[in-house]
Fold:
Amino acid sequence: MNGLGALVRLTLRRNRWFYLAWVLALGAMVPATAAAYETLVGGLAGDGALDLMAANPTMRAMLGPPTDLTTPGGFTVWRVGTFVATAAGVMGLLGVVRGTRADEEAGRTELLRSGVVGRHAPLTAAVVVGLAACALLGLVVTAGMSAVGEPVVGSLALGLGVALVAASFVGVGALTAQLTSSARAARGLGLAVLLAAYLLRAVADAAPQHSVTRGLAWLSPVQWMALARPYAGERWVVLLLPAALTALLVAAAFALESRRDHGSGLWTVRPGPDRARPGLLSTTGLAWRLQRGVVAGWLAGLAVLALAMGSLSGTFDQMVREVPQLAVVLQRLGQGTDRLVDAFFVALLGLVAVLVAVVGAQLWERLGAEEERGHAELLLATAVPRTRLALSHLAVAVVGSLVLLVAFAVLLAVPESVSRGDAGPVGSTVGAALALAPGSLLVVGLAVLLHGWAPRLGWLVWVVIAWSFFVVWVGSLLGLPGWLVSLTPWDPLPALPVEPMDWPAVLLVTGAAAALMALGVWGYRRRDLRLP
Structure:
């Protein structure tokens, strides 16, 4: 394991801001929810109404299994605990792929191995740093919950559960990095595993209490933190599951690394055809060919989410009959509407609009990756102008984002349309999604602007996305100042059908997005290429 210390320091230096941003964002969300417990639940906890609400299949599928909802700690585990554990898994997965397969694909690992470095040292360094980041997140969560007055034992169980769930996906990332031959494939496979685990949890939690399906929750790693029951009679033995899974996956990753050649994965890449298809004769066709896997993966995931959430919307009337106070909570989520299905759709579309912005930024950033790998330089050495190359990737980002948002809206409303026997809900939901689309395009425009003029500041786009996600997920319930909540690209846009259509706001945000894109493409024409 020669050179391990130096590689750990190098990996930590190259990824410190990536991990720090995740730790601070997720670590702040947990105690903030606990501190706002009284504001969030009001009088729901005292008369058992909150327990009735949490027992509803819709709420269980969305938020996870409830524990003790009469305390701020138990409520926090239910309201944001499963989400934070899942997001921490994303952090661990992406972080270890950055330090393994991505560096190997870029040639950095080969350069390091030309020195006195052990074969497994790069993978070990990436895993060590990833596990350290998970441990730091667990410490931040534990300290934050203790600081707001929650029991130390429960806080420790929550922090340890989040850290171990994240660590298990460090193992998933280490394993997929050995199976695939590219960082994109490793990330895609790992995220597919995480999404499958989350959907398995949602299906299991929504099942009847004595159903066999309910037991499937034990097979989902993202559920193990909640099953450890922080603040509700902690079951410490449950936390041995993610610890054991982490050890097993990491050991498998090291074993597989010994069996594969450098630069390749265990899954061989099929040779392509001897002649290119006509679509690859254009820059737009090439950009789509490079990105179609990303779009297809997101489309599949959002389709499953839309159908699952849409099918649960029919249970709101029964929920409100059982828990009348729930109407107040849902109305706050849905901008004050009296129709609970609309409130649910408004809140969900606001969340998915941010996810679509993530997709748009991800699709656009492929141009930066092609530039850093030297591929863009090869294209530009031919008769391809820079503007055409940039617009090709921008077209895929814009069209792909819009298609995903509209597809989600259609599938979300299909169950209600079927139950009502008319297509009205589909049309209104698509209209609501399109009204939010300019906000997603504004984020893409910011990404284009930064790439064209200041590529090193591209991380600012993810700061905007992270803040918007926080506001959408819990900001409306935490009683934050209005000016602070309004600092998102979607705030000026109307939340249809709750609010009336505001054409000036929609056109203004759309125009701002187009202006940022134009300025970014102009800047890309003028600056030097970022060479590998």
User: Anything to note?
Assistant: Residues 333-338 have pLDDT under 50 and may be disordered.
